[in-house]
Amino acid sequence: MARGKTVLATGVFDILHTGHLRFLEESRRRGGPGARLVVVIARDKTVRKRKGRNPVLPETQRRQIVASLKPVYKAILGREEDVRKASFFLGIIQTVKPDILCVGYDQNDIKRFVKRIIAREKLPVRLVQLPRFGLPGLNSSTGIKRRVLNS
Q1: Which tens digits make up the pLDDT trace of 117-134?
Q2: pTM of this structure
Q3: Nearest CA among 91, 105, 87 for reference residue 40
Q4: What percent of the chain has pLDDT over 70?
Q5: How far apart are CA 141 and CA 144, in angstroms?
Q6: Contact, 35 vs 20, CB < 8 A?
Q7: Whole-Å CA distances, 12 to 9, 42, 57, 60
Q8: Is there a contact between 102 and 9 (Cβ–Cβ < 8 Å)?
Q9: CB within 8 Å of 132: residues ≥ 6 apart
Q10: Among 11, 44, 64, 65, which is least packed, fewest CB within 10 Å?
């Protein structure tokens, strides 16, 4: 039996919600039957640099929670170097060897960056940007944090 495609998805996954779950389910589905979904969890340092604040849950807990989800084959921590350096994503792509790389609706900067790397390195990776999933106000960790503070 032939092995399915490897799909790579990335994210912070702080305060897990149904939008995250649907994103991961759809990412795996894009790989077809037997797909293996590998999820790269953003490091705490990366979150601080990109968002200007710490995540609520530390990276090891976020990785453990995502790894336990049904659609996920494996969850790994991202690299500690700057995500704006080509070596960051190139290293992950070379390690995981995905057929498909899925990014979220709010990852336009990462999408552009990875698209350039894939083209420059002539990598056989299909880049897919998925839409937003979940109910408004409950489909982002930031929205959920606001809701908790206001209740």
Answers
A1: 999 999 999 999 998 876
A2: 0.87
A3: 91
A4: 83
A5: 5
A6: no
A7: 11, 5, 10, 11
A8: yes
A9: 19, 104, 105, 106, 139
A10: 64
- In contact, 99 and 128? CB cutoff 8 Å: no
Q: What are phi and psi of 100, to 5 degrees?
A: -135, 140
Taking CA 137 as the corner, what is the angle to CA 135 and CA 141, rounded to the nearest 5 degrees?
105
Give bridge partners of residue 11 from the DSSP assignment. Answer: 41
Map out the domains of the chain with their CATH numbers.
Answer: 6-150 (3.40.50.620)
Angle at 72 between CA 22 and CA 47, to 5 degrees: 75
C-alpha span between 127 and 100 (Å, rounded): 6
User: Distance (Å, rounded) from C-alpha 5 to C-alpha 78?
Assistant: 21
Q: Which token pair is 100?
A: 């498909």
